[in-house]
């Protein structure tokens, strides 16, 4: 790896990590409110086809992002109604959502497999992008890369510095106590689920409109599950989510770099790297269950029955 290749690898790592970061931040909002959503993979797939189709027909990437956000928010609202008001099992409902999203996106996307978007715009921060090494590595990114960093800082402030964030965390820790104080626990949880789904939708749309950009059945390829694992890896803290996303993004890009360098390792093993890294991290974290319990929202995955 030479001086020319390294900045490009760093830039690719930031780009790959952005998809994971945005989705994981959405799931973090869900889990801070006490809701586990295992449907991130399906949400991202539906949002990916919605975003790609919209961008292709309108020629606007930003409308594509809006379509992805809308698709993610709508499906999450349906999921929220099932698990919050009808008290269906969160884990089973999330898995059903994931399976539905995979099948629905494949069906709707049949006509878009050969579709192509227009020439992708290039972005650069004036002056900073011309700095040797630093410019190509950090300042020639799509605005969504920087938005992920802003979202991380904003979510950290919201959770730990605002009254609304305190209420959200209280709902995730003890919904009974929050209800006793007069807070509408179910409405707060639904709002958190919709907001989290919107971010998963944005991640899916970014994947198909900018990161790839194309539509292929199953193109999310496990990124929704990695984003879900990231929340545990980050112990439900936004800044750690961002760092973890870049870590897994780096592992993903490393496999492509090794392949391009002619490293004589079967491509199947290199493709396994991000998922192996996810499993290894979760195993290492699981060795200290007490540490997880201290950081995990106390009511995570538990239903709430007002008045019970």
Automatic annotation (TrEMBL):
Xref: InterPro entries: ABC_transp_permease
Subcellular location: Cell membrane
Entry's Gene Ontology molecular function annotations: transmembrane transporter activity
Key words, A-Z: Cell membrane, Membrane, Transmembrane, Transmembrane helix
Main location: membrane
Entry keyword annotation includes Repeat: no
Membrane-related topology note: Multi-pass membrane protein
CDD domains: TM_PBP1_transp_TpRbsC_like
Annotated TM spans: 6-28, 35-56, 62-86, 93-113, 143-160, 190-209, 215-234, 241-259, 265-285
A GO term from the CC aspect: plasma membrane
Designated name of the protein: Putative ABC transporter permease
């Amino acid at each position: 790896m030479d001086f020319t290749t390294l900045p490009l690898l760093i830039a690719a790592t930031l780009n790959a990590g952005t998809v994971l970061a945005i989705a994981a931040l959405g799931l973090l909002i869900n889990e801070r409110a006490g809701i586990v959503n295992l449907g991130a993979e399906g949400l991202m797939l539906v949002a990916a086809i919605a975003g790609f189709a919209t961008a292709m027909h309108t020629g606007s990437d930003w409308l594509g992002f809006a379509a992805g956000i809308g698709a993610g928010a709508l499906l999450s609202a349906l999921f929220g109604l099932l698990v919050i008001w009808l008290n269906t099992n969160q884990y089973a409902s999330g898995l059903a959502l994931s399976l539905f999203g995979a099948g629905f996106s494949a069906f709707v996307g049949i006509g878009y497999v050969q579709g192509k978007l227009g020439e992708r715009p290039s972005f650069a921060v004036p002056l900073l992008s011309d700095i040797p090494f630093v410019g190509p590595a950090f300042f020639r990114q799509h605005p969504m890369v920087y938005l992920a960093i802003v979202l991380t800082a904003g979510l950290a402030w919201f959770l730990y510095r605002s009254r609304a964030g305190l209420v959200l965390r209280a709902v995730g820790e003890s919904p009974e106590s929050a209800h006793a104080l007069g807070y509408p626990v179910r409405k707060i949880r639904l709002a958190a689920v919709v907001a989290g789904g919107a971010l998963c939708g944005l991640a899916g749309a970014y994947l198909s409109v900018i990161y790839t950009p194309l539509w292929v059945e199953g193109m999310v390829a496990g990124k929704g599950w990695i984003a879900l694992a990231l929340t545990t890896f980050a112990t439900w803290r936004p800044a750690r989510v961002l760092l973890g996303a870049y870590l897994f993004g780096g592992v993903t890009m490393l496999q492509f770099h090794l392949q391009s360098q002619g490293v004589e390792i079967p491509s199947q093993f290199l493709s396994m790297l991000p998922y192996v890294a996810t499993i290894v991290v979760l195993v290492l974290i699981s060795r200290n269950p007490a540490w997880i319990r201290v950081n995990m929202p106390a009511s995570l995955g538990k239903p709430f029955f007002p008045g019970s």
